[in-house]
Amino acid sequence: MAADVCPQCGSPREPGSTVCGTCAFEFATAAEGEARPTGSPSEPPGLPPDGPPAGMRRRWGRIAFAVGAVVLGLGVVLGVLWNLLDQGDAQPDASSPGIAATGLEIVHPQDGAVVRTAVVQVRGTAPAGAEIILNRRSAPDGRATAEADGEWLMTVELEVGVNDLLFTIGSDPATEKELRITYQPPAATPTPAEPAPAPWTTTGSVAGARVDHTATLLPTGAVLLAGGSGLASAELYDPGSGSSTATGEMSDPRQYHTATLLTDGTMLVAGGTYPLLASAELYDPSSGTWTATGEMIEARAHHSATLLRDGTVLVAGGGSSPDPLVSAELYDPSSGSWTAAGNMAEARRFHTATLLPDGTVLLAGGYGSGGALASAELYDPGSGSWTATGGMMEARAGHTATLLPDGTVLLAGGYGSGGALASVELYDPGSGSWTTTGGMIEARAHHSATLLRAGTVLVAGGYSFSGSGLASAELYDPSSGSWTSSGEMIEARTNHTATLLPDGRVLVAGGYSGPGNPPLASSAELYDPGSGS
User: Has this prediction a pTM greater than 0.70?
Assistant: First the structure.
């Protein structure tokens, strides 16, 4: 065979090559003198020394090459099919030791996390199709299956505090993963308290626009409002229905008068303006009518009237500006007549008169001929005499005086030499002296003061230091000697009346809303001590 072709496959030999590029036949070296494949067996017997013919060798080479290619292709196809079958059908044995501990992972939440919700979503990875089990309280408490992509998700309910969670693939302890989550519920948002009912509420309108009138609680429980603003009309307020109805008219229109409930249930009205009156009349609740009674010795307004223990009525001071009266007189209901009761130590009007526990009457402050007074005096019904007592700390007029449960007298506010006062003082009948107590939150004059069932004192309205009408109210606590706000009235008012009702509420009616303003038309409101401040 020519030396320039491969004796095995007949392919041309590359010059200088020692190995066939087609069938890897190793050409003999010059020293050997012949060529054969490395490690090839002895030539089969019967073949010529030079091997099969060149054409046959080429055919065998091509066949071997084709068969090798086919076998290689089948191997690739079978490998792909095997992988597909292995992924789609093979189910891992959850308890098999072949699943490594690293086959289960927890992605969220982090170990040691603190959460604010009672339910969390635990997310992780595991071999596809693996069953993930949550073990808690020594028993399975949750299950999830890993998806084809290896992800799994489990909803876990937490208990308040620390939750130690143990996850495994199946029951294989080698796959355990621990997760500690602390559940701290958010602080409970306090339920907003229901707003306290307003202590002040409107009530049925009164028939007349009244100021400087009187209001008297009758034995029937109704309140008789009489006169004011130069009116002769009167009306009855019914606390049960919250409405008022007209009743008989007085003989004379009047304001700045006094009204005193007598022991027989009738009511005595005396004096007032305009003009300055000496007349007096009686109201009978059973008939709703007025009848004239004896006239006072002197016409007067801005005076005081006090029911004494013997049933007579002491009227003192008053008069008209600028000349207050020094005189006093007594009304006897049995005779319907008036008698002189001596002269006070000082003439006064816009003062206060308080029946003390021993039966004497304390008169304090007011306007004298020279302005506000600081003096005070006592009337003794037994002797019919007047004696001076300790002077107040401050001169005042247009103030209020309230007998407290301990027998002392609380004087609050009024006008002093420089305007409305916030100062308050106490009179001790035992020593006949005055001491200061806590001042009001606001200075006020021509306000109202009412002793409540609890022993506290409600002060409402009046003129402020600047002269405007006040809507504010405040409570005095005798035990602490201090004042606290008691809300605001629906309307600012001065020169009004305040009456304690049988159920403990306070009826406030009429008055001015401020200087220069007309009387408050049909205005009344109620204070409920149990509903607010």
Answer: no
